[in-house]
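Hi all, long-time lurker, first post. I run a small reading group and we've been trying to get comfortable going from sequence to structure in the token notation. Rather than ask abstract questions, I figured I'd post a concrete chain and ask someone more experienced to write out its structure so we can walk through it together at our next meeting. Sequence below, copied exactly:
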Amino acid sequence: MRVVAFGYMTWGRRTIEAVLDAGHEVVLIVTHPQSDNAYEKIFNESVAELADERGIPLLVRNRAVDAEVREAVGAAEADVAVVSNWRTWLPPEVYSIPRLGTLNVHDALLPAYAGFAPLNWALINDEPEVGVTAHMMDAEFDAGDIVLQRATPVSDSDVITDLFDRTLAMFGPITVDALALLASGRTDRTPQDRRAASYFHRRTDEDNRMDWTWSARELFNLVRAQADPYPNAYCYQGTRRLRVLKARVTDEPYGGTPGRIFIRRGTGVVVVAGAQARRGRSPGLLVERVRLDDGRDVDALDHFTRMGGYLTSHPVAD
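-- Answer (accepted) --
Happy to help. Here is the structure in token form:
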């Protein structure tokens, strides 16, 4: 089929490559310019370079879709458009142009986790599985009828890059399979249950701040959801910022005040966590590795040479 592709970063590039490798003709690519946003520098394989390598006409737009884009999509006479990691809403006068409509590929099990950073948010929220959804685009963001959906389980040993690798591997196959269904004339799609929908904003530095009144499990999920190369979860020891690289939930409860640097145990140092920690029934967070503001990575056992004091969500003068 003749395909117009809207895509950005690694997700966009891998999707377009799969469409090409399946024998479809990509007649136009639209992408975003490179960004200074910390999250958009991660996994940033270039869609523009792919267009150049394959000799495919390219348009680069920051956010808005203008008259030139609409005219180019119309002139392409495409059977279908494919969207992968396009960072803004497409208007109906664009997504409705191709004969079969527009297929969007999103790394979440819609209707939950529409919007941005779905894998990070899902891991923070302790979801048992994540996945990828191929759905038809409509006027509402990430809300169209589902063509295909595939999932992968989440284990306690997973960090964000594990989920990225597994879901990224789904992008090409689910797109190609969904295009085959569209080409066959199948229309038995699944409407999204809007009662189960959720929409998440872009993550920023503020979202990675550790709040020690969260449970140890919640803090553990935040740490692994922000593992390298993502901006790490962080807290403060006095006025010094500490990025927590590795942590786990203790098997035993530790009572006291949230944030207290309590005791050495095994491979790390226990920090009291949880709003109900004073009752002595909440597990602590075993911090195992931290990154200092000078960029050095240090084992927690080497960094926390004395017990006592507190880790806080904001700097506190000594």
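A couple of things your group might point at:
Helices lie at 9-21, 47-54, 67-76, 92-95, 118-124, 160-184, 216-225, 300-303.
The chain has a mean pLDDT of 95.
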